From TrEMBL:
<dbReference type="InterPro" id="IPR033129">
    <property type="entry name" value="PEPCASE_His_AS"/>
</dbReference>
<comment type="subunit">
    <text>Homotetramer.</text>
</comment>
<dbReference type="InterPro" id="IPR018129">
    <property type="entry name" value="PEP_COase_Lys_AS"/>
</dbReference>
<dbReference type="InterPro" id="IPR015813">
    <property type="entry name" value="Pyrv/PenolPyrv_kinase-like_dom"/>
</dbReference>
<keyword id="KW-0120">Carbon dioxide fixation</keyword>
<comment type="similarity">
    <text>Belongs to the PEPCase type 1 family.</text>
</comment>
<dbReference type="InterPro" id="IPR022805">
    <property type="entry name" value="PEP_COase_bac/pln-type"/>
</dbReference>
<dbReference type="Pfam" id="PF00311">
    <property type="entry name" value="PEPcase"/>
</dbReference>
<dbReference type="GO" id="GO:0008964">
    <property type="term" value="F:phosphoenolpyruvate carboxylase activity"/>
</dbReference>
<keyword id="KW-0460">Magnesium</keyword>
<feature type="active site">
    <location>
        <position position="146"/>
    </location>
</feature>
<keyword id="KW-0456">Lyase</keyword>
<dbReference type="InterPro" id="IPR021135">
    <property type="entry name" value="PEP_COase"/>
</dbReference>
<feature type="active site">
    <location>
        <position position="553"/>
    </location>
</feature>
<comment type="function">
    <text>Forms oxaloacetate, a four-carbon dicarboxylic acid source for the tricarboxylic acid cycle.</text>
</comment>
<protein>
    <recommendedName>
        <fullName>Phosphoenolpyruvate carboxylase</fullName>
        <ecNumber>4.1.1.31</ecNumber>
    </recommendedName>
</protein>
Length: 889
């Protein structure tokens, strides 16, 4: 199967090339055993023809298309599966290469924390200032479900086992027998993968998605967090001679899985309750495993007076404490099992691990005793790892955010005020709303009558608020309000929480996501902070979420990026003026069109002062796996985040020059005009989009728990940002990630601003990051493939629009190459360029087959529906293209 894949990779990546070839060969052998030589030969023939077609061989392209269209129904699924799995194995090899002992120096850059400490402590930053900043870093990575995360959990576990085998193979001391055993294990794993159905038969539930997130922690992050902190401590100690606190947690984790109900009717209060119980259950189970191991390790007798007194002079004082914790954790697991099964057992809280101190206090007592008795070496082993896991994950594992649309909260009050004879809240102006809300927030009597019977939708919002009131603050993160635009949107949630008995001050976070909302964000927060009652509630802390997905869908990436930048600048100034600490929550997706890209670059390109030691960032399904799916990869990602936030805080980027701002303002205006001129004003755009991409078919696939649209009867404006981008990545045009940018840059050049643009690209991290991201999507775009989709699937009268879009793509590529003074895209990032090249001969046949399958399914009738083979093969092609493109949503 791998064939001459080496042709696609340069010699400097020999280790990667070797692993790709080996895994591809094993996959080919598996197919041969299962389907015979003739099938494998056909697959290999199509692969080679695809490769020749890429080189401009029209005869090869024609022959490849003939072979693909002639595939019988029974060969559709195994063919799609073959190319899909090769791409997954190529991804795996590439992931492993970045953590391999044989990693090429162009790929494996030196540790970012080590580099940063060297720069900082070389006279630029005071050591004490650096240590204080490091100890107070607050980086919150928020794991979110991904409607286009295709890979099933069972396959992800098998991929992880393959990586373990690749790591074992790097041991030069292996005997021939040991090498044969590893090879046998690889063949077994790839055979298991081949014979496993890659596509879920049913749409996952929100609980399924939450369990997927927990599996990433259990299999990777649980191990990576203490490894990273030990590495960080060693680096700091080497540079400063000081050790980090035992409870340091620069990076923590939250989740939206099971809490994000915006447009998802399947996330209910009952679901959220189950997810909270499962999160806590997972933490108790993992801590129990650690405590069982620690009982075996801490067999020593010597202890300090505090521990001896606590254990009544036990001969094994450490084990005495640990055995008690072990039993409490077992009882906690039993209690949570009962809750998950739907029971509500009576319990004596003193017999369980009910709050974090129940576990933390006794473990810290053991740690102090060991250190007091000269056994710091032992204390800094597994016991320290457990304490640091506790600092990071707590006893609830993930802090669960709640997200709901602003309109749902207003509807609650509108229904209530109508019932009370006060009028309709939704018909009041902003001044009337604020006056009512503040009056009720200060009023001690209940607003909600006990005999009121609200509608089902209103009852669900209130049930969610009552659920929040029942749970401790440490189990929950923020309450995020989608489509927030006014101070009343925040005050409404605060009133609902008060009326449902919530006594802890939950962070209520407005999410500004459209272009107009971003432009008005600072005005809204200014008005909020001018309210005395609200200022008192915040206790000097304000969190604001910046939406990348919907702003880009609304205005295009260039205008959205500038609006996000300006909104952050203004919010920083507003909060500074009010004496309030601002935490910005970045709602980024995996794709470039949704704010994705390298996290390190993204953080360092934020406005100066906008990070200030605190940041929240969403990490979505596929990117969770790519960044945190393997322990060593996770350690690298944690180091990247920590170094970026530390650097952005202590060595912030320069303020942009006024001429740069003026130029960017013109670019933003021209880009949004060009973008909306197509997406909103071109009458043929929506029918072209739905014909040229698998957008309609994506909505039918069992990919995620959340519907593809916020409203079932809505048009393009109601389509969620993720499927919007995912659909365009499938036909390889990548339109949302570049439309409008090239036209605006070209206009700047025509004004004679090329020199200015080059200064901005060289000296302004914000602008250079945007250009770098444009290069990446331009390199991934394939206009010829997009034209093929058009030829096969789009009515002839709409072809003019496809030609216009491809011309605009070509314009953007040319202006970016001129700007960067390069002959090829991504010339400065050869690893990324080679990564794209490596995959193309395997993605292309899937794209060509997908068009054939889309044509077949669209011709289906009630009397002659598409066969099960066709439907499953279509899903596999979508999965395969997603695997090859990687950052698809």
């Amino acid at each position: 199967m791998a064939g001459n894949v080496a042709d696609n990779v340069t010699d400097m990546y020999s280790s990667l090339r070797s692993n790709v070839s080996m895994l591809g060969q094993i996959l080919g052998d598996t197919m041969r055993t299962h389907l015979g030589d003739s099938f494998l030969e056909k697959v290999e023939q199509i692969r080679k023809l695809a490769k020749d077609s890429r080189r401009g061989d029209e005869a090869a392209r024609k022959q490849m298309l003939e072979l693909l269209t002639a595939l019988p129904d029974e060969e559709l699924v195994p063919f799609a599966k073959a190319f899909n799995q090769f791409l997954n194995l190529a991804n795996l090899s590439e992931q492993f290469h970045t953590i391999s002992r044989n990693c090429d120096e162009l790929v494996c850059v030196p540790d970012p924390v080590e580099q940063l400490l060297g720069r900082m402590l070389n006279g630029r930053i005071d050591q004490t200032k650096m240590l204080d900043c490091l100890k107070t870093l607050d980086i919150d990575l928020v794991l979110t479900a991904h409607p286009t995360e295709i890979s099933r959990r069972t396959l992800i576990q098998k991929y992880a086992a393959i990586v373990d085998c690749l790591a074992e193979q790097e041991n030069n001391q292996l005997s021939d027998r040991e090498r044969r055993q590893i090879n046998l294990r690889l063949r077994q794993l790839i055979a298991q993968i081949w014979h496993t159905n890659e596509i879920r038969r049913e749409r996952p539930t929100p609980v399924d998605e939450a369990r997927w997130g927990l599996s990433t922690i259990e299999e990777s992050l649980w191990h990576a967090v203490p490894d990273f902190l030990r590495q960080l401590n060693d680096q700091v100690q080497d540079r400063t001679g000081q050790q980090l606190p035992i409870d340091i947690a620069p990076v923590r984790f939250s989740s939206w899985m099971g809490g994000d109900r915006d447009g998802n009717p399947f996330v209910t209060a009952k679901v959220t309750q189950e997810v909270l119980d499962r999160n806590r259950h997972a933490a108790a189970r993992l801590f129990l495993k650690d405590i069982v191991l620690l009982v075996g390790e801490l067999s020593m007798e010597e202890a300090n007076s505090e521990l001896m007194a606590f254990t009544n002079n036990s001969c094994e004082p450490y084990r005495f404490v640990l055995r008690s914790l072990r039993q409490k954790l077992r009882d906690t697991i039993d209690y949570l099992n009962a809750r998950i099964e739907g029971h509500n057992p009576e319990v004596d809280k003193s017999t369980l691990i009910w709050q974090e101190s129940d576990l933390k206090a006794p473990l810290e007592m053991l740690y102090k005793s060991l250190c007091d008795c000269g056994m710091r070496l032992i204390a800094n082993g597994l016991l320290l790892d457990i304490l640091r896991r506790l600092a990071c994950f707590g006893i609830h594992m993930l802090r669960l955010d709640i997200r709901q649309d602003a309109g749902r909260h207003c509807d609650v009050l509108a229904e209530l005020t109508r019932y009370l004879g006060m009028g309709d809240f939704n018909h009041w102006d902003e001044t009337e709303k604020q006056a009512f809300l503040l009056r009720e927030l200060s009023n001690r009597r209940p607003l909600i009558p006990s005999n009121w019977q609200p509608s089902a939708d209103v009852a669900e919002v209130l049930n969610t608020c009552r659920l929040i009131a029942k749970h401790p603050a440490k189990a929950l993160g923020s309450y995020v309000i989608s489509m927030a635009s006014k101070p009343s949107d925040v005050l409404t949630v605060l009133l609902l929480l008060k009326e449902t008995g919530c006594t802890h001050p939950m962070r209520v976070v407005p999410l500004f996501e459209t272009l107009s909302d971003l432009n008005n964000a600072a005005e809204c927060i200014t008005a909020l902070l001018d309210i005395d009652w609200y200022r008192g509630y915040t206790k000097g802390m304000q969190e604001v979420m910046i939406g990348y997905s919907d702003s880009a869908k609304d205005a295009g990436v260039m205008a959205a990026a500038w609006a996000q930048y300006r909104a952050q600048e203004q919010l920083v100034a507003v909060c500074k003026q009010a004496g309030v600490k601002l935490t910005l929550f970045h709602g980024r997706g995996g794709s470039i069109g949704r704010g994705g890209g390298p996290a390190h670059k993204a953080i360092l390109s934020q406005p100066p002062g906008s990070v200030d030691g605190r940041i929240r960032v969403t990490e979505q399904g596929e990117m969770i796996r790519f960044k945190f799916g393997l322990p060593k990869l996770a350690v690298q990602s944690l180091a990247l985040y920590t170094s970026a936030v530390l650097e952005a805080t202590l060595l912030p980027p320069p303020e942009p020059k006024q001429e740069w701002r003026n130029c960017m303002e013109r670019i933003a205006q021209e880009s949004v005009s060009a973008y909306r001129g197509i997406v909103r004003e071109e009458p043929d755009f929506v029918p072209y989009f739905r014909a040229a991409t698998p957008e309609v078919e994506l909505g039918k696939l069992p990919l995620g728990s959340r519907p593809a649209k916020r409203r079932v009867d809505g048009g393009i404006e109601s389509l969620r940002a993720i499927p919007w981008i995912f659909a365009w990545s499938q036909n390889r045009l990548m339109l949302p990630a570049w439309l409008g940018a090239g036209e605006a840059l070209q206009a700047a050049c025509q004004r004679g601003e090329m020199g200015l643009l080059q200064d901005m690209e060289r000296e302004w991290p914000f602008f250079s990051t945007r250009i770098s991201m444009l290069e990446m999507v331009y390199a991934k775009a394939e206009p010829n493939l997009a034209r093929y989709y058009e030829t096969c699937l789009v009515p002839t009268n709409l072809h003019h629009l496809g030609e216009t879009l491809r011309q605009r793509l070509d314009l953007g590529i040319k202006v970016v190459l001129e700007l960067t003074k390069s002959d090829t895209l991504m010339a400065h990032t050869p690893w990324n360029r080679e990564s794209v090249k490596l995959r193309n001969p395997y993605i292309d046949p899937l794209n060509f087959l997908q068009t054939e399958l889309l044509a077949r399914t669209r011709k289906e009738t009630t009397e002659a529906p598409a066969s099960e083979h066709v439907q499953l093969a279509l899903m596999l092609t979508i999965a395969g293209v997603a695997a090859g493109m990687r950052n698809t949503g």
